[in-house]
Protein 1
Amino acid sequence: RAAYGVSEPNGLAVDMSMSVHVHGDVPAGSTAPSWEGKYLDPNHPGCERKISVNGLEVTIEGADGKPGPGCGTGNTLDAWTLTAKLKSAGADEVLIDFSPKGGPKDLLGKWDGDGIKFPDGNKWTKIG
């Protein structure tokens, strides 16, 4: 038997190697998400979403329009700041405290390649 493989009777080797993904961490060989930047939120068109990271601590600054849902003409802006945490420097998940906006205290956001996907299906797409 070869390392990480199983020899078959016909002389061919079957690759039995596998990668292990620890929940919340980026798999080996992948690039860690770059959380910092500006995002678009389709549930609040034109409203600011800006993320900054300091170690494992995350700050999200934004605004919502009233009456909404967007931040266009005729809406007054309601600015807010949220805090969040990363499990590790290379984490692909973030726990966001939406309680200052009346939401859940620990909402899981998952990096999906070009933005943050939330359990309700909403996605903030990174734009800069």
Note: The first strand starts at residue 5 and ends at 7.
Protein 2
Amino acid sequence: STSPSVVLLLSSVCTMGGSAHLSFTMGALMCAGGAMAFFRKGSKMSLIGGCGTGALYIGSGLLIQSGQNRNGHALALGTSLVLAGGMGARAAKTSKFMPAGLVATLGGLCGLYQAKKVLEWWEE
């Protein structure tokens, strides 16, 4: 039997609109990336970090869908800044683009979009 919270999450994702797409997509990518790193290399920190940032992105998408646009985009912006900063530092330290540089780039690009949306919804 599927729990009601899982059904609610799946129905929300299946009916997402507009600006929630990026949050849900980033959430799925971060969770998948963390899980992949765990299964390939045994990295518990990648699993925790990926699923943690993924959960924050999914939470922001749910906030946006519920009409709390400013709060949802602000949460996604904060998550993006932490992601870009943390993974950017790791990419610089290792001098490798994959995977840290790619994740930092995704975080930075997502952050730019989220900052634009926060400014649009600021007076809400």
Note: The first helix runs from residue 4 to 14.
